[in-house]
Amino acid sequence: MTIYEKYCQLNIDGRWINLEKTEENTEYFCTPIGADIIGWENGGIHYCFIDGYGEMVFAVNPETCAESYVYPLAKNFVDFLRLILACGSTTSVEQIILWRKEQFEDFLHSEDNPILSEQREILNRIQSELNITPMESPFEYVKAVQAQFDDSKIEFSNEYYDTLGLERPDSLEREAEPVSFNTVAFYLDRTEKDNSKWLELITEALKIAKRFEIHCWNEETEWIEFALHYGTLKESTWKYGKIIEGDVTPEFVSMILGIPKPTDIEIYNKMTPFFNVFLDDAKFQSSHYGTEIYIEEKLI
């Protein structure tokens, strides 16, 4: 059994280290062909293995400021976990590609990178149960991996080239497609003092929505029971949580718009207590407790 398989068996709550496992592994335009997604961070950043690169772990950042949307972080999953143990989460590890050593060190020891008690428990569990130690020089390690990296084997879908206005490698012209609508993303970070922006966006979507889905983690029993007053449990393969579905009724709308902004905002600056709220087959998506919102352009 590989270290990755052993890690998965631990059923770690990856939200605390920004390596969250979800049922909906939505691929972005820059997600490589052959990517095996292993976890998610805010802003659409995801971590993966890629066919042709063995156990190497990559970051995929749809809103990157680097020269590439896809870049390696570790030679294998063991080293990836060692980096997380050294840095507290994936956040600073993913940012190394953009930083100087001083910037990395400043962030690592700043108030923006607190190590919470629940996070520390998870880090200690990973270290003890998998018998691994923190990476001694994480910044130098990642920089060395990236300096030696050859990305010539990474393949992207036609959507990647079309989105960036690049010529497709197969030299084929873009095929005529049926009329479709782009998805517009909104990210609500810790600068949001209330959930008024979230309420504004979901209010508009609720005016025409017919069906809803609410996703809750298994341990969020209070909110699962609460949501079941407005819908029914949906059959799902998501072993980490429950999905409630139903019709968008006046009662449901009043409930969604009437719940106060949560106060437990250590990991996420929550706009809503529900992990995901999807309307009409995800034409409107409130994800990660409302900190990420994706809306079909025609709804705006």
Describe the structure.
By secondary structure, this protein is an alpha+beta fold. The chain folds into two domains: 3-164, no CATH class; 183-299, no CATH class. It has helices at 3-9, 77-87, 90-95, 101-108, 117-130, 138-147, 158-164, 196-206, 221-227, 250-258, and strands spanning 35-40, 46-50, 57-60, 70-74, 183-187, 211-217, 232-233, 241-247, 276-279, 284-287, 292-296. The strands form two sheets. Strands 5-11-10-9-6-8-7 form a seven-stranded antiparallel sheet, covered by helices on one side. A hairpin with a 7-residue loop joins β7 and β8. α2 runs antiparallel to α5 (117-130). The chain is globular and about 55 Å long. Residues 176-180 have low confidence and may be disordered.
